[in-house]
Amino acid sequence: MNTIRWAAAITGLLAAATLTTALPSAADENPLGRFHQQRLTWKPCTLGPDDEIGAELDRAGARCADVTVPLDYARPDGRTMTVAISRLAASDTRHRIGTMIINGGGPGPALDMPPYMRDVMGAAGPRYDLVGMDPRSLGRSGAVDCGWPTATWIKGAGGTRRSFERSAAFAKDLARRCARTNGDVLPYISTRNIARDMDVVRGALGERKVSYNGASYGTYLGQVYAAMFPDRLDRVVLDSSQDTLSWGPRVIAGMVPANERVLGDWAAWAAERDATYGLGETRGEVLATVRRIYAASVRAPLAVGRYRLDDTMVPVVLFDNLGNDEDGARASLAASVRVLAEAAAGRPAEPTPDLDEELGYLLTGARSQDGSGQSAIICGDVAAPRDPEVYWRDVQRHRAKSPVFGPLGQGIGPCAFWPARPAEPPTVGGGPLAALIVAATGDTRTTYESNETVHRMLPGSRMITLRANVHAPYQRGYPNACVRDRVNDYLATGRLPGGDLVCPPEG
Question: Secretion signal: which residues (predicted)?
C-alpha cells in the first residue's frame, strides 16, 4: 500500500456523509460512555448492485456496522457522525486471540481489508476478529468530497515560475472548493479524532484491548492512538513507519532523496532491458531519457492519448511507481516511460493500460473524494506555511540537487490555503510501545530513516529490516518469507524477536 494511494490501491466505496443529532443521554459520568456502550447493528456489507467491495466482504463472511461517534469530541453532546467498520470474525474460535484493527495507509479507506489481511497473516489470521475501519472523512465514514477536478492534491512546482504559479492556483482552488462544500466539518477531521474514533470502536466491540496492524500512514495513526490511549493495545505491527516528527503537509519533501536513489536503481534495471524498452543502454542514459521527458513537459504538456501531462505532473507519475522493485512493477514503469518518451519526441503516444488507469485517476475528478478526504486529514493534523513564496524559495534551493523530485517534494499544496487550522498540536508520540516494525532499506514513501526514528522513539520495539526497494512489504504481500513468517509468528504468539533482525532479498 502506498503512502499516496491511487486507483489500484484505493478501494473504499463512497457512501453519503452521515451527520445526525446526539445519541440519547445516558446516566454515565464519562461523557463518552454512551458511545463506548452503544449496541452495534451488524448487517450485510453490500450497499447496492455496483458495490464490489461490499460484495467481496459478504462473500468472505464479513459483516458491517456503523459506529456513532461525536463530530466534535470537545462537545460530545452535540452533533454526531457514523464511522463504518467491517468485521471478519475469527474462524478458529477455540484459539481466538482477540480483535485486530487494520489500516492500510493513505490516508485511505480500510473497510475492505479484513479478507485480504486474513490471507497475509497465515495461520494467525483465523485466530483474530479482523476489523477494517474507514477513517472519518473517507469512504463510508462521512466522506469529504469537495468536487475536485482531480483525485489528488499532489502536484510538482514544475520547471518555471509560471508552472509554480499554476500549481499554487490549483492548490488554492482545491482549498476553496473544500471550504465551500465541507467547511462545517473540516475543523473536526484529524488523526487525533480518528484515534478517538478507534477507541470508541474498541469500546463498542466490548474489548478491553485491541491489536493493531497498520502500514504507512496507518503506522502514524497507530502511534497517535498509542500515545493517546497507552493501555489499550495488545500486539502491534507497524509496516513501513512514518515518524510523528515529519508528518504533515510537507511530508513528501523528506521522501525526495530516497526517490532519487530508487529512480537510479530502476534506471539500471531498465538499462539491462534496453532491447525491450529502448530507454538507454546504461543507467546514466536511462536517467537522461527521464530528464529529456521532464524538459519537454516544461516546454509544453505531453500529449498521451486523451491526456495532457505537464511538468507539474510528470514527476508524480514517476513518484507513484517507485514503491515496489518487483519485476512486474518495474516493467510497468518502464513501459510508461517509453510512452512518455514518444510523447516528448513529438510522436503519437498512446498510454499502456496501466498508464491509462493512472492518468485517468490523476487527471480527472472521477475519484475526487479520495484526495479531498486525504487532504482534510493531513491539513487538520499539522499547519502548513501560508506564504507561497516560502515554497518557491525552497523549490529553488533544491532544484539543482534534485531536478526531478525536488520541485515535487517542495511544492505547494492545498493546506497552504486550507480554511480550517488544526484544532490541536500534533502528537509527538514515543514511549514504551512494544511494537514490531517492518522497514525496507529502499522505501520511497516512509524512508528507512523514518523507520529508524520510530524505532528509537519506541524503546520497547523490535525492527525487521528488509534489504529491498519496497513500501509496506508485509501488508503488500511482498515475496519474502523471512518478513512474512516472523511477523506472523509474533501475531500468533505475542512474542517479539529477541533483537532486531535483517531479512535479505529473495531470488
Answer: 1-27
